[in-house]
Batch of 3 targets.
Target 1
Amino acid sequence: MIFAFGGASGAHLNPAVSLMLLLRGKVGSGKAIAYMVAQVAGCVLGALLCTVLIPGVSIGQGLGAPGTFAPAAGLSSIGVFAWEALMTAALGLVVYGCAVVNSAFKAAAPVGISAYVAAAIMTAGAYSGCVINPARALGPAIVFGMSMSSVAVYVAGQMAGGALAAGLAGLIHKE
């Protein structure tokens, strides 16, 4: 998807990353909000498409529907928040270091970002589900009727991770 949309939007696919870029002054507030709305709408549409393409999947189905997620047994809300914040912050730093700053890695940014996402899923997937994208959390939650109070912990952690990435990027990269 990064290769597909990179030329059109800079591949803004994640509201937490868009927040990071807004806080770093790389995108204006109007554009950041428009990206975030489009990102969530795209994930809602993707979840709705699952109800058409996958037999037995229906609106309001709850956990078990495609894209739904839950923490590992025994993982507290604080644990979910921490996993999502840390993994999302690291994603933001990879995006910033590969695709935003003047870097020798820009041409390979889609590969580097995708490799990070795969590694993050292998690291945190068994614990929080490694959702690391508020739009990806909200799309299935809205369509399949997940508990918004539990989804809110994920989204809060992810957005905190985006803000943390913005601060860390300022410390790491001298622009």
Target 2
Amino acid sequence: MMENTVFMSFTFYSTILILKMYVIAIITGQVRLRKKAFANPEDALRNGGLQYYRDDPDVERCRRAHRNDMENIFPFLFLGAVYSLLDPSPAVARIHFFIFCVGRIVHTIAYLLRLKAPMRSVAYGVAQLPCFSMALQILLATTPYW
């Protein structure tokens, strides 16, 4: 496995993305504490009372950013792992992984900082391009076996 430079590059960028998701989870928790908006009554009771068992727009924004990551990063993990097995050009593969990673980071920053449209949409679209490319290459490589 250590000889597969494409897989090692994929592993590097995937780990960056997973760490980014952990950071968003931590940010969400911190915003919950700061805004006193808890999802569970027992947490609200522990932090001041049931009046804090409520939704908050800032917490919901963090949660949407995290959910969007799950909807996009999890498919990338599958596509990138399988794509790595197809023996693609290491340079081209690295470009695919890099573009996706940067696109997701920019998307998260745009989401959490409420940057002007269409920044978030552009970041989302750019990040999808390498995923579609990898999916197409996987389908082309596996079509003879269906």
Target 3
Amino acid sequence: MAAARNLTDLTLAHEIAVNANFCIKHEDFPQNSFAGTVKQIVHKAFWDHLESELNEDPPEYEHAIKLFEEIKEILLSFLTPGANRIHNQICEVLDTDLIRQQAEHNAVDIHGLANYIINTMGKLCAPVRDNDIKQLKATDNIVELLRQIFRVLDLMKVDMANYTIQNLRPYLQRNLVDYERTKFQEILEETPSALDLTTEWIKESIEDELSSISDESSSSPGADSSPKPIISPTLVLNNGYLKLLQWDYRKTIPETLITDEVRLQELREKLNQLKIIACVCLITNNMVGAAIVDVPDFAHQLKRISVPLLEGMNKKTFDLKEALNAIGVQICSKVNRSLTERGLPTLNEEMQSNLMGQIAHIVEENNPVSSLIDKRIQFFMRSLLALPSFQKCMPTMPGGLSVIQTEMEFIGSQYASIVNFNKQVYGPFYANILRKLLFPEAPMGKAETETPTT
């Protein structure tokens, strides 16, 4: 239970600090859903019952008094420490004991109480709620007025929560590394298996690196006499981070990356789209480059054709083959139009068929163009991680990626930011895992305070 609470706190703090757009939204059940229908029926029954009570002679005020008591508590919850005057005023005006005594003598000024509540809400609400307050003042029916008061109070609760988040964000940003590391240590003490997936992730990266060294050694003379390979912990971690860009997100992500899972998945999806665009441009350039070499910015024109047709390509219902066929048709049309405008012969049917066929084949496994572009994207990202975290410049963009350079640099910047922060927080935990896997004979200690650096 404590571990689950710590994980929730850690995740929420991380999201508030790194996501400037994070806020709490007021959400209700869909109107036609079962839950929405039940809620609507129950609420209608409650307000109808209240209306019948207030219409009795003499009126029955008990349920209304309970609503005023609830409203009083909500208004008090909006006050900041030290707001003693308005605190005392709310308690005095909405004194339920006094209201109950007035009800016994049929002397409750229920409209006067409602107007006081509305005016107080107007003083406490955010400017975005001013129109809601005006609508409340224009409502005459007391039951409908009380119902709408609760609706606006619910909105004000959300506003207050978001105001608190906004004020908390700078503090969290300054202290997030220590906070997350401390919280995760508490989780680890409560749940010793909380690093199992992370350990497996690092172990796979070590095995990949050993396999790569083995392949290089076997092709070199004197491989049999080579000493035991020395593996760089930083290289192991960086390779592990690179695998996240091709991660199958149906699998559970390592525990230390849960807080950034959605952001990493979004980056992977954007990179997949950019890879397709780069493939399309490279194929087109290789096949008809001579015909379009004099057309300025032609590659970016091809990108503008591709982007809308690849929108939503990571959804399960998206048909990538169909999209690539449509892209091929439009590119052939664009090339022919450009040739016609310059008085040149258009592409013959065979060349158009070949161009559309090669574009359609991008989706196939082990497609040479797709594999090439993928390796170059990976090379760029690997070069980015190899840079010191304080270095702001970007590595050189590999050939074939210039058409997506702006997008690649933007995604690369986001990716590097996620990775560098993750290393800061979880570096001590990674260091212990790496020591255990790479140097099993070395004595184990507590998590180091030093973080592996790039």
